[in-house]
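#struct-queue
[09:14] JT: dropping the first one here, sequence first, then the structure tokens:
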Amino acid sequence: MNEAWSKLKPKDKFSVKKAQHVSEMDYVVLSMLYQPIIGVGALALINALLVEEKIETAERMQQHSVLLNQLDVGIPDFYMAREKLESVGLLKSFVKKLDNENHFIYIIQPTLEPSVFLHDDILSLLLIEKVGFQKVEELSRFFDYSIPDMTDYVEVTRSFTDVFQSISSRLGGKEEELRKVKAIVTPRNKAPELTITSNQFDWLFFNSLIESLHIDQNQIEVELKRTINLFSQLYGINELEMFDYIKQSVDYVNNRVIEKDFKQSVYKGYHSRKKQEIVENKEENNINRGLSDTEKDQLRQNTLRLTGFSDEEIAVIQSCETIPPLVFLKAIKKQKGGFVSFSESQTIENLKTQSGLPDSVINVIIHYTLVVQGKPSIIQSLVMSIANDWAQKKIFSPEDALKQVQDLQKERAKPKAKRNNYGNQSQRKETLPDWAKEDVVRKETPLSDEETAFFQEQLKQLTNKPKEGDN
């Protein structure tokens, strides 16, 4: 980690300050809420800084080497731990040149109250990522200090003026003393909200998409914008995918997004996709480490060729990997001279949320239905049956999906065994899934490298081929 060495040296000195007193509850919050997010290294660092602050004097300035030896870490690990503390608002770092050396001042910031922490989208989502939703629910109940039902009780609490009736007369001659006390103690400001920006999320495009939903725009801007930016940056969700999640969570009676449903659908959708990506990319990540994007793309093509795929089939796979399902569907329907119906859009959205299949595999299902089989529209029962079959078989990559189609075509191309009159002979068991028994073989339609040419070629080949069942 060259950045760490360029910004920090073992001989650089530091001092530690606290923004306020650290209580026993702060240590509990650090351990139970912050530690899963920042890790044990960052927790060890803030504990070491707290100890250092207690024993530090005005004349005593330590070198970082002392802290590094105490923690038994190197500069890169120390720097990473410090960055984590800074990122969650637990530490502020300042530096200046002093005697040809860097002098750092570390100011330890107070922890958030548990209720504030758990209501913060960024921190609570990161915590869910680390320990799971069930554990976060347990923590929420542990830190819940809600007042029990007091319906049958009458409040008898005395006010301040009830107890200290003569206080106003005693304040008259104490203005100077009060001013000095206030000057010594700085009032604590409200903890700054963690900010997150998503420069890649196109809000103009996204707002144009959600206009069709006729939902409360003020809710999006005031209540959900920060959450949407968070999801975009943490989970890599684009505008079209975010629109789908919003659409699934709208209460059309009140024209508002149900925030809880929105967060749950994003969380479930992301983790369903993440599981498939882990399976799909486990070996690929090791191979691709250190390669440029061009080298990765070339390696991907060569691997597919060695697996036995033709250039046309590789083009199909790459198109399925790079185009969102709804865009993929709309492009095919447009080239066929048709349009995407509302029920088709709903079917694709249901596929994405229910099947757990990655977008690339869903695209293969769309291509198989509309191009290979020549269906005019997406049939929900058919594509759901295919998706169910593939999900059970753990088909999580477009090449595996394409192999399924190829194997199916080979199976269907085999001549059927002649029936005989011997009832006691065993009959051949049908090996095809139910959704595959209706149609005969159709040759796979090739796709070009560019999206527009790719779909034009599909339409051309589709219109020039005989329909299934023709001789």
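[09:21] JT: and here's the second one, same format:
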Amino acid sequence: MDSAVFKENDFVWAKMAGYNHWPAIVMRPDPDAPIKTIKEMQWIYFLGTHNYAWIEDKNIKPYEEFKLQYKKKNTEAAMEEMDDIINNMSKDPDYKISFAKYIARKPSPKKQKKSSGLNSSGTPNDRKRSFPLKEKNTPVVKKKHRSSTSNEIEDAIKTNIAASISEATSGNAVGTPGLLTVNTVNLGTSNKFFGFLAGSIYSEGILKNLIKSKHKLYVWSRSSALLEELQEYADRHQTFFKTCTTPRQVVKTADITFSCLTDPDQEKIVLNQLGITDKCDDLLKGKGFVEMTSMDPETSKDFHDLITKKGGTYLEAMLQGNKQEANKGEVIVLAAGLQPLFVDCQSCFKAISKASFLLGKIGSATKIHMIFQMMRGIFLASLVEGFVMADRCSIKLEAFNNIFKMTHMSSDYLEHKSNTIVSKKFTSAQDTEEPIEQLQTDMTLALEMSTRFRQPMPLASNVNEILKNARKLGCDNHDSACIYRTRF
């Protein structure tokens, strides 16, 4: 939406990275507010949480027009506050409101740097607005604002990471990961050179988001068609982009290399090409290596040991999401490993995801990823059985789906799967968001992990058999919703 559309005191829905759209107010920037990084941004006050941030225009929507679409349980309190304000304004055109004073955090003596917008709440005072609120305008409440620069992100991480996931043992619970959320609103694109080994279904979407955000890339893929398409895309965006003929060429020229391949076996082949077994090969020395290939914790630890012995640094970064979310830059990055490497990748994670978390030592992220994938499979199987039963009862699936999407059981993931079931578009490569081969492989890894911990998983075991049956019938590259067609 064009920035001219938004005016001071407009009621809006505003979206900060990692959060859903939230009731908010467009405000006049405070004199002490951080400097906005691009022109198309608005200074936003969030109702309910009473936080401030610069938000891009593309993440702002009119309040009344999108009220039903963005209404969620966790926004009810903020919506109630907004509705009270609107109601008071309709009754009294001169309605005024108390607000808290905005206070920008002063830089520490050691780091006299520009502030950029990490929020914290403030304390209200009784000052009134100096101008009356009109029916079309919005009362503004100000709160304290805490800020940080992109160079201070590492310090923010150090003080915000909670206890890492512990090594699970029989009878002991897994530790709670710190839900690290770093405010990257004013974080610019890194000036480092990034490499990318592209092989999975998510690679294209991830790379296009990195290109759009002006990251400097060296890319290798076995698909020449993909490389040609990405080169054209980069040329249109006038971004530095070089294709490489081998993984070695990528790692040699890049500071940090992301590896997003189909499975650990492919990763082992690539690592051998990088000289991982050659004592005299120092290609990985001083290089960062970010593993995005879905794998089990033990394999990730093995890769970590191999790379660090060669003088490199290693970060596992599992991608929780599907192809559509990767295309939109809305996956969740579950990372584990070295904090400095995680910090160096923040601008990339901002471009490709809606949130990124550093969860502790190597193996932590893969464990959580496997559990989430197991849950995906169980949710999907439950949905499919419901639609199978509806079909057997001669209920029109279109009507059944419409009702399902209105219930609290619905979610973006299940809604997409239910639409796929109704449309029966299981086989099209364009419509495949989650290949059944990948989901079944992850289910198997999750079950192997449950065996090591002696944790029964009866639902996951049954779902795995359903997925295996679909693969036996030749559906490896079909969307996972195809189990509706391959049901017993």
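[09:30] RK: nice, looked through the second one.
[09:31] RK: The longest helix spans residues 364-392.
[09:31] JT: good to know. Residues 10-91 form a domain with the SH3 type barrels. fold (CATH 2.30.30.140).
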